[in-house]
Amino acid sequence: MLKRIVVTSLVTIAATCGCATEPQVVEIPGASDGPVAATDEPVQADGRVQWLRGRAPWPSEEGIGVESNGGRYWVVYIPQVAEIPLNEEFDMEVRVFDAATRSWLVNADLTLDARMPAHGHGMKIDAAPVQNADGGYDVPGMLLHMVGHWELYVDLTEGAITERAQFDIELE
Amino acid sequence: MCWSILEPFKIDRPMTIQPTSILCVLALAGATPTVSGQEEVAQYLRTIHGLDTPRAVAVGPMDRIWVTDSGRDRVLGYGSDGQPLITLGSRGRGPGQMLDPRGICVADDGRVYVADTGNHRVLAFDQAGEFEFAIGELGSESGAFHTPLGLALDKDRLFVCDAGNERVQIFTHAGEPIGALEPTTPFERPVDVAVDGNGLIAVADAGAYRCIVFDNAGREISRFGDAGYFPGLFSLMAGVETFRDRIYVSDAENHRVQEFSREGELLQKWGLHAIRPREGRGKLHYPAQLAIAPSGEFSVLCEPFDDRVQIFGRGEEVVEGGDVFRLINTQPSPHYGFRLAGSGHWLLIAEPETQELLVFDTQIPEPRLVSKVGGFGRRMGQFHGPDGIHIDGEAQTVVVTERAGRRLQTLVLRVDPEAEVAFDREMPGFVRMLDFDLLGRSVAGETLEWTIEPSAVTRDGDGRIFLLDARNERVHVLSPGLAPLFSFGGHGDGPGQLRGPSDLELSPDGKRVFVVDALNRRVQVFDSEGQFQFSFDGTPGLPFDRPFGIAVAADGKLFITDTGSHVLRIFDADGKPAGSVGGKGIRRSKFFKPRGVEVDGRGRVVVIDHGNHRAQMFSQAGEYLGCFGARLYTRPARLPHTFDPSDYEE
């Protein structure tokens, strides 16, 4: 049963409260052939949330991207289904880029989770990303078992520091 | 006789309290008249009052009861009838002196071993109370300690929970180190250990919310428990006792004692949170260490929060059905934690039982709960022992430290300031997490002896993070991107050294760092690069007893809570006394063990009145403005003329 997916990032909400310049629903409907220059949006002081600065390069396929909440990464996820199903397993792929250089990070230390904050619970499964030959991460067996607002978290670790990229998914 | 410690317990009716074991009397005494109308069974015997934060207890030969009177840095010995007999030790670092003792055990020959926790050693006294010798000193090598807590003895061995080193060391009775317990996965924070006559060794590993059981040879035979409040789970394990193959765990933040088989099967649980402030006589409130007399004739339970020890004995009749209210009420007992942070129109308080961060909006006079953040877990976005909090109200960014999880997380509150105030669990967006275990002990060019244990935290105008490291007793300064820059402090009582630091804050211009040096009973002042400037101890007139929290107003005025004397002290920017508010009590402007303090975005001084389960708000001149928190505990402050305080105070 499909359900409409509305994907936004932290920036959307931040923008509505004046923390960013404008709301951005980030969808990358198709291929983007090359690097995309960063926008001229101001970069806030390090240590504070740096909101989305622009679209990332995306070599192929359809994906949805956001800048990580600290501005270090650009993360794109690609559901391997036309629409995310309710309470049925689906696969997805995640790709990680350096937000500053726009280069693809193929050895990211990545964990993935999804939760429904309003309900205080997560998924019924533990997501297990597996790196694929292209350098992306296949995430088989994702399962969003309830209608409502989900937050998809991609946590990326370098050394002792982990930074989160998150997506909002509205499952109706 | 209503119970027998020898009678095997049958769990065919787990929702029925059957008084078949010694600690069952705790439950029955705390049960109050049940919904079925049956009267409580009076196994409760007596309470020893007049203590100050008693954390550990043991029962020795002749049924003598030994209690660490931790807040007064001494050990008291009582007869089984509760009559005081002897005092051991005094505050200090010399032979036989002690600082914040938190563990005790007694040998068959009457020798008393005391965990001198604040001095990181174990003391031995003979049966007459004369000091004999000390074991260990601060360190991480074999035979040394960091924060020794629970102790236990068998015929040949002394077991010491070396909590800061995350191990349980074993010594001869003469104090020679002979090894350590080796669980299948490392201890995270062992707080108490118990040994029974059959060689059963049980360790309460509070950091992992589990009990680990060993045989007499030190082989692990079972482990059980996890975080939570459902039966069989723990929230802040504070003590463990064994008796004839049964294991009893004091589950402090669930206000109960749970009894298990050696395999970890839950047999019973007892405890009912006090309904009225300071209510005792069987009600349990943050129970800590417990002990069962070798004879099995009575049991003793410490309640440091309420400054008392309760003694229980045999009752006269069986209660069927038990306390139904308690059995069906499986919710946690939320209380405000030790610290808070305020800025702009935000106020944040950690809630230990749920391990959530409570987010209050203060646009209206009485803070309104608008979100809860976190909850127990080890993933990013969850908390394992949330402790320090800092918020930048303008940017709506928050820093949270996890002392047990040894992490620091940053998050943003995603709120439209123009929107109507409403509860929203989707408010937080987590940004970064620094894992101090991954960071290791090499930090900013220095090699620390222990991994950083983050506690209080604040931030300067440049975004640098000032972080109190409870284990190394240092302050670390991190860049806005969480890279360690430098640190200062270190263990000791000299100028610039710290013992048991509990809080820190920056002056409004960011040029001074105030550190509450709790066990040295002073506040030390450093410049923003960590150079020691001066210190003050509250004098003249009223020296600090146990200072805990500190806040700084925009004009530089300092507000410091003193847990020991139950007051809020006010100082000018140079540490000169400028007044005080409080005193022990529950009425408005009175406190019971106040903890964190903050000046919120409205300029109010908000104090966590921890022992009264509420927060009180004052003007900077000390005028009472209001309070919020648990209804029963706020009522005396809201209606000061319409109640009898004796209704609330034992």
Output the keywords.
heterodimer, A: 172 residues, mainly beta, five-stranded antiparallel β-sheet, 1 helix, 10 strands, globular, disordered N terminus, B: 650 residues, four-stranded antiparallel β-sheet, 4% helix
Architecture blueprint of SSEs:
The complex is a heterodimer of chains A (172) and B (650).
Chain A: E1 7-9, H1 10-16, E2 64-67, E3 73-79, E4 90-98, E5 109-116, E6 121-122, E7 130-131, E8 137-142, E9 148-158, E10 161-171
Antiparallel strand pairs in A: 1-10, 2-3, 3-4, 4-8, 5-6, 5-9, 7-8, 9-10
Chain B: H1 24-30, E1 44-48, E2 54-59, E3 65-69, E4 74-78, E5 84-88, E6 103-106, E7 112-116, E8 121-125, E9 131-135, E10 148-153, E11 157-162, E12 167-172, E13 177-180, E14 190-195, E15 201-205, E16 210-214, E17 220-224, E18 237-243, E19 246-251, E20 256-261, E21 266-270, E22 290-292, E23 299-303, E24 308-312, H2 324-328, E25 340-343, E26 346-351, E27 356-361, E28 368-374, E29 386-392, E30 397-402, E31 407-413, E32 428-435, H3 436-439, E33 442-443, E34 446-447, E35 454-459, E36 465-469, E37 474-478, E38 484-489, E39 501-506, E40 512-517, E41 522-527, E42 532-536, E43 547-552, E44 558-562, E45 567-571, E46 577-582, E47 597-599, E48 605-609, E49 614-618, E50 624-629, H4 631-638
